[in-house]
């Protein structure tokens, strides 16, 4: 107990010592001097704010009372009005007024807006029983790829009788098949007497060819056709230049169209190795079929001549010749065609030689290759040739045989359908039939044979190398054409056309020329 009392006494003495130290610090601290602003606020508060319960009747008490009354008056002055707000239903708009407002709204069309450059009708507007039609309708119609002329005209609003008459008139001028898809027709339709009837055709104009424009017009009577011949310049476009850093880039920079450059490179690549045999100093020379009308239209055709010169001597001279459009060199020799393509897309299932026949159950020679393929797959000619047989051929079923010249021929058996006729010329890769299982066959496949001198040989052991040679008569015409193209001046096809009015109406006679000569 005594120890506890001593502890409490010591704690009490400690707290007393702390209080004494704090008091000593407060006495030694200098008094804080109030700022002028604080002094002003304190003076104003002491002057106006007071306790209304003390010093009643003093000047300070009356000032405090006046301040309280002023605050109460201000509060009542700004007291909100709790009376009901006055409201009214919007005026009902008529349909005409609503349309008038809608035409002035800035609102998405999906929400009902009807904005534009027009104003809504007012009450003074009188609706018409029938809106007046335009006296003339002018439009442009385009012929579709698989469309007919009459059907296109009817869709454009031409009556059935006028459409049939137009088709008849144009058909008498040129075959309708020559009017290709995408041809534009300028049509003008006149006034009609009854809105339920189609408008009468007044005029129709279109470009039938580069050198011909046809017009069908109604000049106070029935429809009549007018032919307008357009003068066309057929001068070929010749482009020459130096190979430089690249043949394609140089030809394009010289102004040759991309399609023409590709044809030129293809023809030149069949005659020589472009990567190894063409140098930067060589000069390329190409002549392109080019037609331009006096109205400004241009038609760019195929490359007619592809040449390459080295230091003034021809390195290659290739001319397009014949219906097939193949290139021949200056000696009349055609492009080299070597190798065979696969007759069908499929793997070889049975090779050439002796084997046991799956149906006859006997061993006998298998004179060809069997290609596994699905029924209906196309069968291709392995190279150019002429069909010498096309039809049923015993155990071969539907059979096609091609003669390739030089004593070589190929046969294609078990077809489901034949796509060529006897005597027909076929090209390398052309479809000649379809895979089937006709004749002595256990399933769809192609039996492919090759013959040399009439005897069957192993097709896998032969590669074709074909180079066509022009006959003597064709060679003379060929060289004459080559000389004419070489005479064309580079860029001559791009010179301005002489106006038709500047050309003589007819050739001048020799007698007239001599009579008009001076002296």
UniProtKB/TrEMBL annotation:
An example molecular function term from Gene Ontology annotations: metal ion binding
Matching Gene3D superfamilies: 3.10.450.350, Glucose Permease (Domain IIA)
Residue intervals of the M23ase beta-sheet core domain: 365-459
Signal sequence range: none
Transmembrane segments annotated in the record for this chain: 61-79
Keyword Transmembrane: yes
Example GO biological process: proteolysis
Keywords (A to Z) from UniProt: Hydrolase, Membrane, Metal-binding, Metalloprotease, Protease, Transmembrane, Transmembrane helix, Zinc
Cofactor dependence: Zn(2+)
Pfam families reported for this sequence: Peptidase_M23 (PF01551)
UniProt-annotated stretches for the region Disordered: 1-41, 497-519
Protein name as annotated: M23 family metallopeptidase
């Amino acid at each position: 107990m005594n120890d506890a009392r001593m502890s409490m006494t010591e704690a009490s003495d400690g707290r007393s010592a702390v209080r004494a130290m704090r008091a000593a610090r407060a006495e030694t601290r200098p008094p804080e001097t109030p700022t002028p602003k604080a002094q002003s606020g304190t003076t104003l508060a002491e002057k106006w704010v007071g306790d209304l319960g003390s010093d009643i009747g003093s000047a300070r008490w009356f000032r405090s009372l006046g301040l309280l009354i002023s605050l109460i008056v201000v509060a009542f002055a700004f007291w909100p009005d709790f009376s009901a707000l006055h409201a009214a239903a919007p005026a009902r708009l008529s349909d005409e007024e609503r349309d008038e407002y809608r035409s002035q709204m800035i609102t998405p069309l999906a929400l009902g807006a009807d904005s534009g450059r027009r104003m809504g009708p007012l009450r003074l507007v009188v609706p018409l029983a029938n809106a007046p039609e335009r006296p003339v309708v002018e439009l442009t119609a385009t012929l579709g790829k698989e469309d007919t002329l009459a059907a296109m005209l009817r869709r454009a609003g031409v009556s059935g009788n006028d459409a049939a008459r137009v088709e008849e008139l144009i058909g008498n001028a040129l075959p309708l098949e020559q009017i290709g898809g995408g041809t534009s027709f300028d049509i003008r339709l006149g006034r009609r007497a009854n809105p339920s009837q189609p408008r009468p055709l007044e005029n129709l104009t279109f470009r039938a060819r580069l050198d011909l424009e046809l017009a069908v017009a109604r000049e106070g009577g029935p429809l009549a056709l007018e032919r307008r011949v357009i003068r066309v310049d057929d001068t070929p476009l010749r482009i020459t230049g130096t190979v430089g850093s690249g043949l394609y880039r140089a030809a394009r920079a010289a102004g040759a169209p991309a399609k023409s450059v590709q044809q030129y490179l293809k023809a030149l690549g069949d005659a020589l190795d472009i990567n190894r045999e063409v140098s930067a100093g060589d000069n390329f020379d190409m002549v392109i079929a080019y037609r331009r009308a006096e109205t400004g239209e241009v038609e760019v055709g195929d490359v007619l001549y592809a040449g390459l010169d080295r230091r003034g001597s021809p390195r290659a001279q290739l001319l397009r010749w014949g219906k097939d459009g193949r290139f021949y060199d200056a000696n009349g020799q055609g492009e080299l065609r070597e190798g065979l393509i696969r007759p069908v897309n499929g793997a070889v299932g049975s090779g050439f030689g002796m084997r046991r026949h799956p149906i006859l159950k006997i061993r006998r020679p298998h004179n060809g290759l069997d290609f596994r393929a699905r029924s209906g797959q196309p069968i291709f000619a392995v190279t150019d040739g002429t069909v010498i047989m096309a039809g049923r051929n015993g155990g071969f079923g539907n059979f096609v045989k091609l003669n390739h010249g030089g004593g070589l021929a190929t046969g294609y058996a078990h077809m489901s359908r034949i796509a060529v006729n006897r005597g027909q010329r076929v090209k390398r890769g052309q479809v000649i039939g379809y895979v089937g299982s006709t004749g002595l066959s256990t399933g769809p496949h192609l039996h492919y044979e090759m013959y040399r001198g009439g005897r069957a040989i192993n097709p896998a052991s032969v590669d074709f190398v074909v180079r066509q040679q022009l006959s003597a008569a064709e060679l003379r015409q060929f060289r004459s054409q080559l000389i004419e193209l070489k005479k064309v001046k580079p860029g001559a096809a791009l010179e301005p056309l002489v106006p038709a009015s500047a050309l003589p109406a007819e050739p001048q006679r020799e007698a007239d020329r001599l009579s008009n000569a001076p002296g």
